[in-house]
Amino acid sequence: MKSTLTKFSKLAIAISIGAALTVNAAHAEGEQYFPLQSYRIGPYAAGGSGFFGGFIDYLQYVNLKDGGVNGVKLTWSECETEYVVEKGVECYERLKQGLNGAPAAATNPLSVGIAYATLDRSTADKLPLITINHGRTDSTDGSVFPYVFPLQLNPYSEVSAIINYIGTQSGGLEKLKGKKIVTLYHGSPYGKETNPILELLAKKYGFKLTLLEVPHPGNEQQSQWLNIRRLKPDWVILRGWGVMNPVALKTAQKTGFPADHIIGNIWSNSEDDAAPAGNAAKGFIAITTHPSGTDFQVLQDIKKYVVDAQKGNLEDPKRFGTVYYNLGVVNGILNVEAVRVAQNKYGKRPLTGEEVRWGFENIKLDDKRLAELGALGLVQPLTLSCADHEGGGAVRFQQWDGSQWHVISDWVQADRELLRPIIEKSSHQYAKEKGITPRDCAKES
Amino acid sequence: MLYRESGQFSTSYPADRRIFRLYQERWAFYLLLAAAFLLIPWLGNDYWFSAILIPFLVLSLAALGLNLLTGYAGQLSLGSAAFMAVGAFAAYNSHLRIEGLPFLLSLLLGGVVAGLTGVVFGLPSLRIKGFYILVSTLAAQFFVLWVFTTFAWFSNDSSSGVITAPPLVILGHDFSSPQGRYLFTLTVVVALGFLAKSIVGSELGRNWMAVRDMDKAAEVIGIALPKAKLLAFAISSFYLGIAGSLWAFCYLGTVEPHGFDLSRSFQILFIIIIGGMGSILGNFLGAAFIVLLPILLSHIASGLLADTIDAGQLENCQKIIFGGLIIFFLIKEPDGLAKIYQTCKQRLQVWPLRF
């Protein structure tokens, strides 16, 4: 008796596993799928849950308000990466085929490491890889990286804009000469990405640069800040991520460095970075491509259609309208806009990754279109092309008052003309190593 | 009944010392190989190749390397990931800097450089024993990563410190497709697996085991301890170096030094603890447990419970279940999965009788 029972339970387990593994190809015809390599646990959970919460809420909103994009419903599923590269690769391979027959539009891993590891795969699978506000800088050159999009702001532009801001604060870029700037960076590919360009800018403007690495995940920074106290820099650029940011601010206070001379980069700019540091964060300055807040039309609509209808993705409703959440919404807007643009060319049906790629390359968001989307002031005007996969390159500066962010500057533009040759040199070297013939952008339509 | 030993006599020493002495095992192994080389490439898809089978094989190989050192020669190590990193970066640099070097040779060179590094960090083992040798290998772990992150030359001055794998071309054949990368990895792992099996069966292997069980006694009976220990470090690191190259070139296609951090060393150590120390098969069972089980759990979870439980909570639940399973197996069988397999085999030999 006992053995038959065990046999049955084994059979039941086998069947349930089988059921879980087989893909049911019935009901998702005519939908567009977004594979989400999300992360909701681990040291970077705050970023992941906020970003993917906003992204999912925006997709949900498009479904609930308009019934999808031109009648094509949006669908998605999540796979937890924990910001770990191998898991991200596994998730990429698991989700890339689409869901129940709905083709995948684009992948958004929100991790430089995962983006690097899936870059070749995305290109081979013809699936756009979106790295909004981060990513591999030279992928801005779309002629070599047709499927990779560091939207809005690539790492080089980010640094260039910060230096431009410090220049204006000091009374002109020529005043930078002799100034001391320390960059405290996260010990990961993301953190290191900008070091060469900082060195180049230091040479160009004559400021003295010190690069200090904080090992991942960054919850121990005593020695770095003691070093900073010894150097007495004029500014500290904080190139942090996750738990590293509040720790940096707290340690800065302990060692007596003023918070209003620390400039957080694009991944040190959220409420989740500043708030845990408490008083130490007061006065902290950070850059942003989009303000936080809920005043924008699109956020009000999301609140109306999604959040108030109990369909929101956020576990903690207080995070609605925070920097990470809004970035997720911005990312949603750009992804959906790409699908919409591509549908205008290829027809109102679920599109392949290759077709959505064309959509991304032909995104043109001016103030008029942004107003239609309800995102005026939330998204910067953005025009992408075959050669330029970044588009914007402008940031605003915001300051933390102890409880929320206040925007303190207008758009500060990166010196993109200066950066372009460096980007092209790097992308061409990559093309040579990989044996890629760059596309001729003049022939793209 | 099915698994009877009776009637199978060895009539010569080579026959007695074969890897699989029983014809049942031999045939099962041939079938397994045939399935791995013929059936799986035919049946599998991209997901299976690139996300499951390749990391499984590479980690099995890495665990095999560590098992030679820890399970057979008795030297504990927490530097496995560092030697993998050395292998990966050495293979990358030799491919990059020596014009026209075939990929296989770069792979081999990566392994050799890793082996030499292993010898250097194994030197303290001549003076310190037991747990204290962990300190030396831990030093390797931190020193190697520091070198690769600090000196940009190793990553060809790439701004983010990430190396990008060259196309996988061997003898004019392109193995870049997921299927090709799987077959290539499988071939390397099978070949090195056989080599390991014959090493541990050889005089060297028996010397290692003598050193492991009691080094004073081994010395007394005339085994040269320094040679045995340093060879263990060299060969183990060679295996780890090859595994590191495969990890970089066949699996991820890109690698950064922090992909080989301390947690990777722990992962490999856990594989051999769960799989079984001093066993070749154990590495594969352990790697399957550590690599495949979380993926299976996540598939089951996302298939059955996706919309009912919050995604973050679901992920934490999987971790709890996985941890619970590790504890369960270690309590049930502290000698690892390989021992469970042995027990099953013994039971099968007398089945349907109980003794």
UniProtKB/TrEMBL annotation, chain A:
Keyword vocabulary terms for this entry: Signal
Domain of life, per the record?
Bacteria
Q: Which residues form the signal peptide?
A: 1-28
| Domain Leucine-binding protein positions | 41-402
Gene3D superfamilies linked: 3.40.50.2300
Q: Which Pfam families match?
A: Peripla_BP_6
Q: Which family does it belong to?
A: Belongs to the leucine-binding protein family.
Name of the protein in its database record: ABC transporter permease
Q: What is the lineage of its organism?
A: Bacteria, Pseudomonadati, Pseudomonadota, Gammaproteobacteria, Methylococcales
UniProtKB/TrEMBL annotation, chain B:
Which CDD domains has this protein been placed in?
TM_PBP1_LivM_like (cd06581)
PANTHER family, sorted: ABC TRANSPORTER PERMEASE PROTEIN, HIGH-AFFINITY BRANCHED-CHAIN AMINO ACID TRANSPORT SYSTEM PERMEASE
Under Gene Ontology molecular function, one entry of this record is: branched-chain amino acid transmembrane transporter activity
Keyword Transmembrane set for record: yes
Give the organism, scientific name: Methylovulum psychrotolerans
The entry's cellular-component GO terms read:
plasma membrane
Membrane topology term:
Multi-pass membrane protein
Question: Which InterPro entries does its entry note?
Answer: ABC_transp_permease, LivM-like
Q: Main localisation, per the record? A: membrane
Q: Where are the transmembrane segments?
A: 27-43, 49-69, 76-95, 101-123, 130-154, 182-200, 230-254, 266-297
> What is this protein's record name?
Branched-chain amino acid ABC transporter permease
Give the location in the cell. Cell inner membrane
| Domain of life of the source | Bacteria
